[in-house]
Amino acid sequence: MTDASPLYRPTAWRWMRYVVLTAAALLLLYPVLWMVMASLKPEDEIFSQPAALPGSLDWANYVEGWTGTGRSFGVYLLNSALVSTLSVVGNVLACSMAAYVFARLDFPFRRTLFAVMLVTIMLPFQVTLIPQYTLFRELGWLDTYLPLVVPKFLAVDAFFIFLMVQFIRGIPRELDEAARIDGCGPIRTFRRVIFPLLTPALVTTAIFTFIWTFDDFFGQLVYISSPSLFTVPLGLRVFIDTTGQSAYGPMLAMAVLALIPVVVFFLFFQKRLVSGLATSGLKG
C-alpha cells in the first residue's frame, strides 16, 4: 500500500474528523441523554444504576410529574411562555430603536454614552440586583412579572444594542438619504427602511432573549413567590424537598418536557440565527 493514495488521505482525514466530532457531540449531549434515560426509569434505579439503560420505558414519571406539584405543569409552561414572549417583544422593539439612535443620529455625547453602555455589558448582574430589588419593591412590583418584563421595554440589554448597531452600520447610508429626500424623518426612516432590513439581527435577538428568559432561574426566584405565577424553572424546584423525600423521577421527566419549547424555537430559527451573527456584531 503506498501513499499513493492522494484520494485516500483526504477520505481518511475526513472520517477521522467525523469520528472526533461525533465523540465530542456525544460527550456534550451526555447530560441530556442521561436525563432522558433517567426520566424513563423507576425512582429507585435512577441513582442506583445511573449509567444503565432503562430496562423498559416507564412513563409513570411523566404522568406523576405533570400534576405532582399540586397544579398542572402546563401552568408553568404557559407562564414561562408569557414572560419569554413579552421579553422578546420588548427587547426587539427597544433595542432596535436604541441601536438606530446610536448608529445613525448625531447628538451630544453620543460616543461617550455608547461607551458607557458597552461598559454595562461587563457589569455583573449581582452588582445591580439589590438596587433593582429595592426599586421594584418601592414600585409595588414584587410577586408580579413586571420586574422581569418592563426592563426589556427600556433597552437594558446592551449586548443586543451593540449587535444591532454593528448591523445598522453595514446598511448603506444612501438609503437614509433617499428616505429623507422622500420626506421621511428619523422615525419614519427607522420604521420603513432600517427596521425591515434588521431582520437577521432581530431574529438573533429574539432567539437569545427567548432562551435566556425561558431558562432563567435566579431572576424569577428573586421576584416571584406565588406558586400560581411560577415559571418552569421555579416549578421544577418544587420537586426538590430539602427536608424530606425529593421526587427526582418526575422532576427529570418535566425537565425533559421543558426542553422541548427551547429546542423547537432554536431549530425553527437556526438558519436565521447564523445569518444574523455572521452579518452583524462579529464584523468591524
From TrEMBL:
GO cellular-component term (any): plasma membrane
Topology relative to the membrane: Multi-pass membrane protein
A family per Pfam: BPD_transp_1
Principal subcellular localisation of the protein: membrane
One biological process term in Gene Ontology: transmembrane transport
Superkingdom field: Bacteria
Residues spanning the membrane: 18-37, 76-101, 113-133, 153-172, 193-214, 220-240, 247-269
Family statement: Belongs to the binding-protein-dependent transport system permease family.
PANTHER family, per database record: ABC TRANSPORTER PERMEASE PROTEIN MG189-RELATED-RELATED, ABC TRANSPORTER PERMEASE PROTEIN YESQ-RELATED
UniProt protein name: Binding-protein-dependent transport systems inner membrane component
